[in-house]
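User: Here's a chain of 161 residues. Predict its fold as tokens.
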Amino acid sequence: MTVISQVILQADDELRYPSSGELENIKDFLQTGVQRTRIAATLAENEKKIVQEATKQLWQKRPDFISPGGNAYGERQRSLCIRDFGWYLRLITYGVLAGDKEPIEKIGLIGVREMYNSLGVPVTGMVEAMNSLKTASLSLLSAEDAAQAAPYFDYIIQAMS
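Assistant: Prediction complete.
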């Protein structure tokens, strides 16, 4: 939910007009719209490159994941891992566009630890994977845009930790 939706729904629930502080939050949200759109577009346009780089970084750090007995051993398991990179990157763009972490929570994090545990995927490995995805993604952004996008990656990393 965007800042605008949140303000409107809260004010309506309380049968009041938005406060000056809430209107200031909307103003700030609108002023960062171009930046948020630019970040989301950069990530989306470079998904393949980002996923390839993040995968390369992860396999270099953790070759045991793709070795016999590892969770990403074999073509099928490896492709499932790579698919998850793209899925989480897409979630990041949703959060960036909304200017809020709620889409990430609602769409992608509810039950994620339980899901990976039930599949026998080590959550610590997913945290490492998300750190690789973060590094690969932020390297394509300006310092200012990277600072804006980083908290969304951190939110996923923290939720998995």
